[in-house]
Amino acid sequence: xxxxxxxxxxxxxxxxxxxxxxxxxxxxxxxxxxxxxxxxxxxxxxxxxxxxxxxxxxxxxxxxxxxxxxxxxxxxxxxxxxxxxxxxxxxxxxxxxxxxxxxxxxxxxxxxxxxxxxxxxxxxxxxxxxxxxxxxxxxxxxxxxxxxxxxxxxxxxxxxxxxxxxxxxxxxxxxxxxxxxxxxxxxxxxxxxxxxxxxxxxxxxxxxxxxxxxxxxxxxxxxxx
Length: 225
Ligand SMILES: [Zn+2]
Fold this sequence. Notes:
Blueprint: E1 2-5, E2 8-12, E3 20-24, E4 27-29, H1 37-47, E5 53-56, H2 61-64, H3 67-74, E6 78-81, H4 85-90, H5 106-111, E7 121-123, E8 128-130, E9 133-137, E10 146-150, E11 155-159, E12 163-165, E13 172-175, H6 185-197, E14 202-205, E15 211-212, H7 214-223
Parallel strand pairs: 4-5, 5-6, 6-7, 11-14
Antiparallel strand pairs: 1-2, 2-3, 3-4, 8-9, 9-10, 10-11, 12-13, 14-15
Helix pairs in contact: 1-3, 6-7
This protein binds zinc ion.
Residues 60, 62-63, 111, 160, 206-207 line the site of zinc ion.
């Protein structure tokens, strides 16, 4: 577990920053893939953290795969964006029309279906998740995608609205999420412009290393959309 800012920690779940979960105080943000739960529980244990809640940026298999096991082990309540609640409970993410064509299995195995789980709360704009973070509705990559924003020091946890690495080469840098997994790319670009407009200091994405001095990088990124 790596401390990024006061009360904010990153839990890397794959080599080369491939998949991240985060800890905000005693709240777990995302839970990686099915096989990530063990790693997360071990990291929490080693840090002496007792979780109070689990919040989710969006209901894709590489962000909620570990959720059922985490909930079984800790009993904490789970919150997800209102627009992703049905997908989370069914274990069926909303993907692009193209992704529903047969034969496209690689990336979908990674980020697609997962074991559904019951959701305790739906997150909506302005909700407080603790440690100064509030919920921003940032749809596009999924209908109910949310980000977590702390205005006081400009820390943004943005799920997959942007990725902080190229997903194939793993080279660091800001990118749009894969089109196959993004049902509404134009709406996602609106979310990207909104997040850039906040001028975040640190951007923490689901994929890729932390982006520091992020305001300029985000400005340049959205100018190129
Ligand atoms: Zn993802």
